[in-house]
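Morning, I've got a small favour to ask if you have a moment. It would help a lot if you went through both lines with me. Thanks so much in advance, here it is.

***
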Amino acid sequence: MENATNNTKFCSTCGKEIAAKTVICPHCGCQTEMFAQAQAQAQPQIVINNSNQNQLNGGMPYGRAKSKWVALLLWFFLGYVGAHKFYEGKIFMGLVYIFTVGFFGIGYVIDFFALLFKPNPYYV
């Protein structure tokens, strides 16, 4: 039984007036309505509309595409002066390669394997 004038109703067990949203009577401790019905009425409808595609730059992942084979050719002919680093847009590393002759030859060898195992095209 529900009272229409205010937001109260009467407990079906003890008959005392309680709030309309009450599920368990505070006076007698009896359940006044089903929990599932009370929860369905109390919880809001949540709509999740996630259209995230996890791609940047209009579908290209993380930067500009660079050819692995162009970088390897630059490495082979001018790698000791960092031409492949300039091709990738890494100006500072290119300058370091110029002044240290490819990190004293160690960076030159490491870059060969790093470029060899990159996918084609790779993104920098």
